[in-house]
Structure formats: C-alpha cells, structure tokens
Amino acid sequence: MTFYQKLVHHHKKISRLEHLEAICGWDQAAMMPEGGNTARSEALAELAVIKHELSTAPYLSGWFEQANSEQLEADDVTSLLEMQRSWQQANIVPAELVEKKSLACSKCEHAWRTQREKNDWQGFSQNLKEVVELARQEAQIRAEATGLSRYDALLDLYEPGMTTHELDKLFSEVKSWLPDLILQIMERQSQDISIQPVGPFPVEQQQSLSHALMTKFGFDFNHGRLDKSMHPFCGGVPTDVRITTRYDEADFTSALMGVIHETGHARYEQSLPEKWAGLPVGKARSMGIHESQSLFFEMQLSRNELFIETLAPMAAETFQRSDDPALSAENLTLLNTRVKPGHIRVDADEATYPAHVILRYEIERDLIEGKIEVEDIPELWDKKMSEYLGVSTKGNFIDGCMQDIHWTFGAFGYFPSYTLGAMYAAQFMVSINKEMNVDNLVRERNLQPIFNWLDRHVWKRASTVSTDQLLIDATGERLNAQFFKQHLEQRYLK
Amino acid sequence: MTFYQKLVHHHKKISRLEHLEAICGWDQAAMMPEGGNTARSEALAELAVIKHELSTAPYLSGWFEQANSEQLEADDVTSLLEMQRSWQQANIVPAELVEKKSLACSKCEHAWRTQREKNDWQGFSQNLKEVVELARQEAQIRAEATGLSRYDALLDLYEPGMTTHELDKLFSEVKSWLPDLILQIMERQSQDISIQPVGPFPVEQQQSLSHALMTKFGFDFNHGRLDKSMHPFCGGVPTDVRITTRYDEADFTSALMGVIHETGHARYEQSLPEKWAGLPVGKARSMGIHESQSLFFEMQLSRNELFIETLAPMAAETFQRSDDPALSAENLTLLNTRVKPGHIRVDADEATYPAHVILRYEIERDLIEGKIEVEDIPELWDKKMSEYLGVSTKGNFIDGCMQDIHWTFGAFGYFPSYTLGAMYAAQFMVSINKEMNVDNLVRERNLQPIFNWLDRHVWKRASTVSTDQLLIDATGERLNAQFFKQHLEQRYLK
Ligand SMILES: [Zn+2]
Ligand SMILES: [Zn+2]
Predict the structure, then answer these.
(1) Distance B330 CA to ligand 2 centre (A)
(2) Strand pairing category for B234-237 and A224-228
(3) Residues A419-461: pLDDT tens digits?
(4) Which of A57, A92, A127 is the endpoint of a domain?
(5) Domain that holds residue B434
(6) What ipTM was reported for this prediction?
(7) Spatial CA neighbour of B98 closest among B108, B89, B86, B111
(8) Which of A32, A220, A244, A272 would best serve as a mutation to test chain B binding (most B beta carbons within 10 A)?
(9) Tens of pLDDT, residues A472-494
(10) How many domains in chain B?
(11) In whole angstroms, what is the distance from residue A162 CA to residue A339 CA?
C-alpha cells in the first residue's frame, strides 16, 4: 500500500466516524427525548476524542511527507492537498488551547441562553471576553502557520481562500449602494397592500406540501428524510441527508421557504461525487458555496414570482383554500418579497440581510485583529445598524449584539459566508441564464436543466478546485458583487 | 487512579461507543431510507472494529491482574468480576476465527433470505454447515477456557450459569406434561366461538392506543420512544430506550401485544441502576431474564382476562367501535388466549411456544456437541414437531427448519432464553401474588405495586447477582418449571 493509499484509508475511517456523529447529532435534535441528552452528549464527546486522536495521529506527518514524494495522478494530488489542508488545520492549534477554548465556549453559550432573555450584556460580555481572548490566541497561531493575517486565518476555516482584503472590497462596494437601494425598494413597496394568511395551517398539510416541493426540487428520498426540529438544519451524510424544519400553524410560508432552503443544501450533499466519498476533496467546497446553493433554491428560484405561480395553487389545494385571496400568487409574491429593515438577522429579507452580515464582519474582524474590545461592541452595533438600516438598538442587547449564537462558540469568520452565498448564487444565475431561459423553465415547471447546470458546475466539483477557480470555470470570472446588485434591482425595482 | 478505576473508565468509554451503535442501529431499522444502507453498514462496522480493539486491548490483562489485588468494596468486587467475565468472553476466541465466522454468517444469512422463499434446503444447508463448523470451533475454544461443555460455553453467552444438565432436566419435565396439556386445552377450546375483528384499524389510532398502554405500563417517554420498523425490537440505551412495532391495519392486537411485550423489555432497561450505568454489572442479567420481563408484561399481565377488561374499552373507544362485539372483553380474551399448534415459532401461543423452543434446543445442542450433522436436521425437526405438537413439516423447510434467522448468524444457545423467560415470569408472578393480590390490582387498574416488586427484585439488581441468586432472592428458590405448568393450567384449564 502506498502512503497515499494509507492516507485515503485513514480519512475514510474518520469519515465513517463522522457518519455516526452526524446521525446521532441529527437524532439528538430531531428524535431524542429530553432525558436522553446527558448520555448522548457524553457519547458524542467520546467520539470527538477518538476522531481527534485519529486526525492528529503522530504518524500522519511522516505519511504526508512520504505521500508527497510518490508518483500520483493529478486527481490524487488534489485529493492529497485537501487531506493535508484539513490535517494542518486540525494540528496547528495545541490540544491545550483547543480544550480551553472549548470549555470557555460551552460556558459562554450555556450562560448566553439565559443572559440573552434577561438582556444581561454585563454578564455576557465577561464570558465573551474570555472566548475572544482564546480566539485571538488561536488566530495568532493559525496566522503564523499559514502566513495569513489573524482574521484571515479564521476565515480560512469556513471560506478557504477568502481574505479580509477581498471582503473589504466586496462589502464596501455593497455598502456604497445598499442603504440607498433599500430606501428605494421601501418607497416602491410603500403602496403595496398584502393580506396576511390566517391559520391554522395544519402541520400534516404543511408536511405534505413540503414533501411535494422537495420532490419538485429533486430531493432524493431514497437518500434522505425531512423531519422536525427546534432549529432547522441540514445534517446527515451524503448518502442519507437529513433536513429538518419547524412548523408554525399560524404561518406556512416560513417552514416552506425553510424547507426549500435546506433542500438546496441537501441536493449539494446528495450530489457530491461518489468517487471522492469519505475524503476531504469530496466534501462541499466551503460554507459560502454551500449557502449559495440553499439561497439559489430559496431566493433565486422560489421567491421568483413565476415560481410562486406554481407554488400558490399547490398551497391552495393542500390547505383546501382555493378561494382564499391570501393564497393567491400575487399576494404570496408580495409577502415573499417584502423588504423591511429590522433588528433580527434570521428574520431579514434578502435585501437587508447583507447589512446584518457586513456589520458583524466589521466587528469580528476588528475584534480578532485587536483593534476593538468586547466593550466596544454595543456602541458599534448601534452605530452601524443606524447607518446601514436606520434601526436603533441602543440598550437593546437581546435584539442587538446578543441575538446570535455564533460568537458564543467562538465561530469568528463564519458570518461572511451568508452574504458570499447570496452573491455566488446571483452570479451563478446570470451564467445559467446565458445558457437557458430560466424564467421560461420555471414557467414550464421544468427545473431539471437548471439542476444539471448546478450539478456540473458546483455539486460534482466538490473540493477538487478552489472557490475562485470554481467561480471562474462556472461564470467566467471571480466573485463580482455587481451580479447581486443587479439581481436585487431586477427583482425589486423593475 | 487505581487499576479498578482505570477499568471503570475504560468500560464507560466502550459503553459510550455502544450508545452510538445502538442509536445508529435503531435509526437503520426505523428511520433510514434504503439508499443509506451501505454507508451506514460501513460506519457501524468501523465502530465495531474500534470497540473490539478497546475490548481486547493488550494492557487490560495487566490491569485486571492489578485490580484483583486491590482493596475493593464488596460492590466493586462484583463489578470487577462482571468486567472480567465480559473481557474474557471477548478475548477467548482468536480474531481470525471471529472474522471467519462473521463472514460465513453474513454469507449464510444473506443467502437464507432468498433460499427460504424458494424452500431451498440443499443450498441453505451448504452454508449452514460452514457456520456450524465454525461455531463448533468457537465452542471448543470457549469450553477449554471455561471448563464448560461445548454447548454450555455458548449458552453462557446468553444465559450465564445455565447448563445443558439443568436445561435437560427442566425441558424433559415440560415435555412430560406439555403435549397432553395442549390436547386438553384444545379440547376445552373446541367449543369456543370467537369473532375475528374486521379492519381497517387505522395506524394512527393503533399508535395512540399503543401510547396509552405504554403509559399505563409505566414507560417513561422522557427516556424513550415508540416507532415503526419491519421487525419489532427494543433498542437504544437505558436513558433513551427505543422500541418499535409493525402495524397491520387488518389486525390491531398483534401490534398491541407486541408493544406491550417490548414495553416489558423497555422498563427493565429504563430501570437499571444509575449507579452502575455504563458498566457490565449494570446491564440486564441475561437474555432469559430480559425475556421474562417482556413475557411478564405480555403474557402474565396482558393476556389475563381481567386486564383485557381494561384494554377492551380502550380499544373500542380509540377505534370508535363501542358496539362492535369483536372488541368486547370476552371476545378479545378468547382471541388472546387461543391455543393452536402451528408450524411457526413467532406465531405460537404461550402454551405451544415451549415445544418450538425445546425442539430447537435439542437439535442445536446435539449439533454443537457433534452428535448430529446438519443433514440430520430436517428429519429430526419433522419427528419432534409431530411428537410435541402433532404437526408435520415433511419437505416444508420454509415453515420448518428454515424459518428462523438465529442459526444463520451462528447464535447457537440463544433459543432456550425464550422459554426460560416464560418460566421465570410465571415464577415471579407466584411470588408477587404472595405479597399482593394481582388480580385485584389489575381490576383496580393499579399496576404500580407490581412494577415496584419487579423494580426491587429484578430491574435494580441488574447483573449484581447471578441468575440463580436473583431467583432465590426474589422467589425463595431456583427456577422451577412447576410454576409455569400451574400458570398454564390455571389460565387454560380452570
Ligand atoms: Zn443555509
Ligand atoms: Zn422479547
């Protein structure tokens, strides 16, 4: 067996443990009764230890050295590089710091759940300081090992290749037109009169509508399921993708759009190349590309008024409300394209969402680089919210800087993925439209050619190329925020 | 850390991996879409390897030696002994033989699934011979290491302490009265006229009735769930017990009695002592004791006509059939206490069931001891079926010696547990009746005192005592088949 083959074998072993982790994690969120939680958490922690031991086994260093001098096919060179990248990421940070950070994050996250409800910034900021301090240490170590800046070294964990330099450029461009665009859209929509559908919309009917839409979007039920959980997510493994949603009997569109969003994530996972199953090169390219697929399904396709013309009669039939004007295509389009600045990121529409992300990016970047301190966050938050969205959060931490879980578990560098995803999705759509008429296909209810394009240009590429290269191969250029701007203008100002 | 403590730590680690195995195994049977099977099986196989490595780690031998010379509390001595017992069982058989047997069993079981349908004894017996040959080798090795006879060494895996000598005595006693008793019961029941309930009984209603009964039987839904699977089972972990059933819309009693049976298994698991969680001494005592709990729930309690007086109105209400005579207590009692010899073990009633088990026991005992060969099975099967139950299986392998899965995967020594369970259950009931009037409690729908007795005498004892000791402490004597005979006579000939 060559050293490359040994590494392949080793990574497939890790991947099989990730399989168990994914299924038991899904079960914990979707199936497990409350009383099972302690033992489950212990079992998953044990598995994490075993996985960590395998990922950081001392012999791997020698194996990589040997494998690098072996004669390999071009494909295998790429695969080896991705193995090495994930191995380095797992090995750079000393075990002691990993553990310290993990403890601080657990403590911070746990306390945050009650502190948030009490608007207790003082209490929360004490814990967050610890987390930030350890994240800075981690960033420093990763920066030294990679030659990247501190924040970029964290960004690299979620969006490999992306840099502060690039993000500053992209986001300052967005900032130059977004606030004004939002005002224009609001002005346009000020005369719109929409009707709020009145529930109850029984969970069972919502489920059957969700299944019907998932089928329309090509979800493979032989390799996946839809279930319920408190916080919707896409989990499981490529051969068995588990997506979840949360049903609200008063409002069916939130679950529905959520299901379509997760179906985008799911199809990416279900369509990853079998050839590379269980290896780093066979995984999704990045968080941003993953989000681009869910947002492509949700924003590019499903909030298109032409698609809502398909959706509306399905909903009316499922809920047996053929004469309910609230379920007309026109009304559902108004509801699903409503732009309105608000405090909460997860409730934001696609036009105001980037403002929430840019604000977080700017704060976490400066926090990690040591340019600001935790104490500075509330004031900066309020200032930026006012500037970008005209919303005040003074003294309101619940709906301000305490609303998200990300920082509590030290995931600095994650937020940009959301808006990168929206921008990638818009750019993909422009390229697809050069090859086919998407509006016509949506009108004809024939989405297959669109999925085929995504499969060829995104899903089947997995991590065999860099994000930049994937974009260039798929769209002829690197990420360009103009496409996202055009998308918003076309949809909201046409 | 003492060596005893190191062993405790080690076994809890194994137990946490068993947790992941149990949940992913449950998921495979109850949730997983077909397409997920290959990757799931690989992931579980990987986990089995890791578990095996831990269970057979070379350093354990020294740890046990050291721990045995440490000063330990009496409780901990017991715990250490149980750890050592399971360690020895896992280490006696050479890895090479384990693997060979595992491959032969996979092959045999896989082929059996189609061979059975085709009544292909010739094909099946070829594979079975290989399995028997390897099981004999395993038995030989286990016999040498334990000083037991070959079959007893296998029996010890499922029913520690039980021996051929004891089983021969118990079963020959049963054989001396059972065939005649069955005839007498059939004579008695020959004039009974029962009405077969006519479906459909919607799955949802059966589910809600199942939940109601599980609640009545004390199932803790904060530490468990009920779901569907092809083959009903009780899985999961003590803090999160997963039972499954299969619903037939034409017949609600089979799922219902199945759910009650699994609830008996579940309560045992849910009630194991927390103090010993994750250690061998904290596990259920044996397969036979486990089955005694499910059969206590199903046979001793639920097929009691007084209990059916509670059950019948619940069913009638759930299915909205208050005037259906098929759902009257009298009729449901007739249906649920019907004795009728048949070919199939899993379809047998409690009176004919032991005949199925004794037949299998006698054959597998002689097979392992080398007194008969695979070729002899069909003739012996037919002879014994005729003798014990008056049923011919000549040339009918599907409904004869090819009906069970157990031998295909080499589980020789398992079958006796079923009937031992029925006998333990009858003996427990007699003792309980000395402390309280069970019929009155059932009439008053107050089962709690009965559960308290089981909790104290069976569930909380886990594996802290031998089965013999458990029986003596609970009932004043070792297993005595007379109690089972009395139970059948009282129920069927009174
Ligand atoms: Zn998403
Ligand atoms: Zn059972």
Answers:
(1) 26
(2) unpaired
(3) 999 999 999 999 999 999 999 999 999 999 999 999 999 999 9
(4) A92
(5) 203-337+418-492
(6) 0.94
(7) B89
(8) A32
(9) 999 999 999 999 999 999 999 98
(10) 2
(11) 29
